[in-house]
Amino acid sequence: MAPRGATRATLAEALAERAGGRVRRFWHQESEPSVVKGSPIFHNMTLGFEALDAGQEPVARCVDDLTLQADFDKFAKPLPGWHRIVSDDERLLRLVARHTDPELPILEALAEAVSLFGTELLPAEGGMLRLVDESRAPIAIAAPLPGERERPCELISPPISSDHEARLDGLLSVARELGFGVPVESATHLHFDASALCSAKAISNLVRIFSEHALELRALFAINPNLRRVGGWPKELIELVAKPAFRGASWQDARAQLEALTLSKYCDFNLKNIAHAIETRHTFEVRILPGSLQTTPIIEAAEFFEALLTYAISANEPPKRAHGRRKGKPGLRSLIEELPLRAEKRAMWLQRAAALNE
């Protein structure tokens, strides 16, 4: 999160300056529970900032994260030029986003969307602007961004395929220098390319390993107790992938069965992008890691989960768990012994697993 007096744009601008590039604004979309009767979910668009290098390649994105709440003054007045656009219909909001220029002041930005729907903006209380259709049915509302919501900053790197530590620290070091901090509810999310996971056997192994060792993995990586939007997989998934018919299915058939479960992304380990074959984000996501501005623990975790995924892909069938589920019991240590890790890294993780019982 940005220190008071700065915003997430501050970090994007610093990253772009170091890379000899510029900052591009865009609309970042999220959803949150609503207190409005009849509208259980509000879909939000807030300003995101993408740092580009001299060749116009992405360096990082800096966006809001609605799960971060505790560190901000909810009664702080909005900063000039900071708005959000909300709707109870995600499809309409995406359409509005395509016709709203985030580089412009809000009235000018919405002009094209107003023209698209052939209507007008209706002023409302608190500086809000209501976009309605010709029958006055609501489409979206633009409102000043309150409560220091310019300070939350989820830092998103582009895919990193080499020099992981140096490239990651190149981002985090700038955040540290600018005085950015780690929010109370923060997490680190790791995305792994899911191409090699596209087989029924790999998914079956993965779900079995991660579900059997879920509590131990949470303990091993010291999950933030204030973390939101995490949790276990539904039992329907665990039961499905354990069936011999699933393990022997083609990937096309297996993926269709996964998609039918309508999995949520808000869990410890996100399979939704794989199940729905989302091309722009075809990844397996680890969501249990605590937030950090230090590079080493993130790289260590990435190496561990890469080894775990490699094992799930290559194992004919993981050995059945013979031990209890309590933290640090031999089940986790036995699993670590099986992982394709360098000797010194395996020793480190075995020591940490053993320490969970001390």
Topology:
Blueprint: H1 8-18, E1 22-33, E2 41-52, E3 58-63, E4 83-87, H2 90-98, H3 106-109, H4 111-117, E5 121-123, E6 129-132, E7 138-144, E8 154-156, H5 164-177, E9 187-193, H6 200-212, H7 214-220, H8 235-242, H9 244-247, H10 251-260, E10 269-270, H11 272-275, E11 283-290, H12 295-314, H13 330-338, H14 343-355
Antiparallel strand pairs: 1-2, 2-3, 2-4, 3-8, 4-7, 5-6, 6-7, 9-11, 10-11
Question: What report would you give on this structure?
Answer:
This protein is an alpha+beta fold and 358 residues long. It has 2 domains: 8-144, no CATH class; 186-355, no CATH class. The chain is built from 14 helices and 11 strands. Strands 1, 2, 3, 4, 5, 6, 7 and 8 form an 8-stranded antiparallel sheet that branches. Strands 9-11-10 form a 3-stranded antiparallel sheet. Helix 6 (200-212) packs across helix 8 (235-242). The longest helix has 20 residues, at 295-314. The model is unreliable at 322-329 (pLDDT under 50).
Instruction: Report how far apart the termini are.
Output: 34 Å
Biggest sheet character: 8 strands, antiparallel
> What sequence of helices (H) and strands (E) makes up the elements?
HEEEEHHHEEEEHEHHHHHEHEHHH
Instruction: Please give the radius of gyration in angstroms.
Output: 22 Å
What share of residues is helical? 25-40%
Integer tally of domains: 2
Q: How many alpha or pi helices?
A: 14
Descriptive keywords:
11 strands; 358 residues; 3-stranded antiparallel sheet; single chain; 2 domains; 14 helices; alpha+beta; globular; 8-stranded antiparallel sheet; 37% helix
